[in-house]
């Protein structure tokens, strides 16, 4: 069976990106897996934020992902998404998460480096050749629909700092900021700075005999397809897409509750919301695959 590292190497060679979608319930997880399969992806990454992991339980998330991947006969990799402390990452690594994003981006830079190194050490010792993601730059927004978010180039990931960060921490993937924000804004056009992304890539060292660090685009919700395509063409190999999925799920549920007010069977109430998630994941998967 191919590892997540193998799929990342394939994505880089093939010029496509692995989709990453969040879940906190089994119905959404299955919809994501089915959507990614229908969209023609060779694998999918699914993530839980710390909040989602608390809601579901770390071990339940691991067991669910394994069961659904096996039933679908499809590779599904579980990521601890934006876990903010060493302890939280340790919990995910111990529970069997396939990979972790330690997010120390809001900490002072040196603290981010030291804590990322700590997570890296622990993961390699405990699990061996474990894939780790770090984050650098000030990424604004939240997983919600907002009116406006102030985007400033000062918050972007600094290319020379990114080079220093990957050298010192050994991360395999790095979440970078170049105009992207979390969530969706309604009164503003979200615009990526592809030139800045290229500067970050140019500054990164290539690791001896192996490809350099993979760069991750977070906050793809609210971006036009053309913007996401341009980021992948420039070298992004992993795209996180979340808020629009939540919006689709919520809308599907609202519509169903309004049109069938006497319906009490959960799987019937949830079916349209699940279908909306599946459909959107399929669409986005085609975009990330470049088809
Ligand atoms: Zn994110």
- Cα gyration radius (Å): 18 Å
Helicity range: 40-55%
Rounded mean pLDDT score: 94
**What's the helix count?**
11
Strand order of the largest sheet: 1-2-3-4-5-7-9-10
Distance between the termini: 25 Å
Shape call:
globular
Number of strands: 10
* Ligand species: zinc ion
Strand/helix succession: HEHEHHEHEHEEHEEHEHEHH
Spans with pLDDT under 50 lasting ≥5 residues? none
For the biggest sheet, the summary is: 8 strands, parallel, barrel
Structural class: alpha/beta
SS strand fraction:
15-25%
Report on this structure:
This protein is α/β, with parallel strands linked by helices and about 290 residues long. The protein contains eleven helices and ten strands. It has helices spanning about 5-15, 25-40, 50-55, 60-70, 85-95, 110-125, 160-170, 195-205, 225-235, 245-260, 265-290, and strands at about 20, 45-50, 75-85, 100, 130-135, 140-145, 175, 180-185, 215, 235-240. Helix 7 (about 160-170) crosses helix 8 (about 195-205). The longest helix has 24 residues, at about 265-290. The protein is globular. The mean pLDDT is about 95. Bound molecules: zinc ion.
């Amino acid at each position: 069976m191919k590892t997540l590292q193998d799929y990342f190497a394939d994505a880089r060679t093939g010029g496509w990106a692995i989709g990453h979608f969040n879940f906190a319930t089994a119905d959404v997880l299955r919809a994501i897996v089915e959507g990614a399969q229908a969209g023609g992806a060779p694998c999918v990454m699914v993530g839980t934020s710390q909040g989602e992991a608390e809601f579901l339980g770390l071990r339940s998330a691991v067991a669910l992902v394994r069961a659904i991947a096996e039933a679908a006969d499809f590779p599904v990799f579980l990521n601890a998404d934006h876990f903010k402390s060493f302890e939280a990452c340790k919990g995910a690594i111990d529970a069997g998460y396939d990979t972790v994003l330690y997010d120390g981006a809001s900490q002072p830079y040196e603290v981010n480096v030291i804590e990322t190194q700590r997570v890296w050490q622990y993961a390699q010792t405990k699990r061996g050749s474990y894939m780790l993601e770090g984050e650098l730059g000030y990424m604004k927004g939240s997983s919600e629909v907002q009116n406006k978010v102030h985007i400033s180039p000062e918050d972007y990931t600094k290319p020379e700092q990114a080079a220093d960060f990957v050298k010192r921490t050994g991360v395999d993937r790095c979440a970078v900021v170049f105009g992207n924000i979390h969530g969706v804004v309604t009164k503003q056009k979200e615009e990526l700075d592809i030139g800045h992304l290229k500067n970050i890539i140019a500054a990164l060292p290539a690791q001896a005999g192996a490809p350099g660090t993979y760069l991750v685009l977070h906050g793809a919700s609210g971006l036009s397809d053309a913007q996401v395509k341009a980021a992948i063409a420039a070298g992004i190999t992993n795209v996180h897409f979340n808020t629009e999925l939540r919006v689709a799920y919520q809308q599907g549920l609202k519509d169903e509750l309004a049109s069938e007010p006497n319906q009490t069977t959960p799987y019937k109430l949830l079916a349209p919301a699940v279908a909306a998630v599946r459909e959107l994941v399929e669409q986005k998967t085609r975009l990330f695959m470049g088809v």
